[in-house]
Design goal:
The radius of gyration is 13 Å and the shape is globular. Strand 1 and strand 2 form a beta hairpin. The longest helix has 13 residues. It starts with 19 loop residues before the first strand and ends in a 10-residue tail after the last helix. 20% of the residues are buried. The chain has a domain of 58 residues. The chain is 32% helix and 7% strand. By secondary structure, the protein is mainly alpha-helical. It contains 3 helices and 2 strands, in the order ββααα.
């Protein structure tokens, strides 16, 4: 677990978690529930493609394209089925 979240807290929803992954939109370490919701966002593919392109040109510290405008509202309405939205 990262030193930034020593208690195992999701950087987006604040929930305690035992597993995090890096967001494709920014540098937040997010829980698997937030990751599943993020992957459903229409801008996700463009963010993933931008990260891949950055790595190909040698930018291994790419900070992401930023959360899309209105992301948190969208996430509350479009959370993965069966997963309560905390974004």
């Amino acid at each position: 677990m990262s030193d930034r979240f020593p208690t195992g807290t999701c950087g987006r929803c604040g929930r305690h978690t035992g597993c995090t992954t890096m967001s494709r939109f920014n540098t937040q370490e997010i829980c698997t529930d937030c990751d599943a919701t993020e992957k459903r966002h229409p801008a996700y593919k463009a963010a993933a493609d931008a990260e891949f392109a950055a790595c190909k040109r040698g930018d291994y510290n790419y900070r992401g394209s930023g959360l899309p405008p209105g992301f948190h509202e969208w996430a509350r309405k479009n959370a993965e089925p069966g997963i309560p939205s905390r974004a």
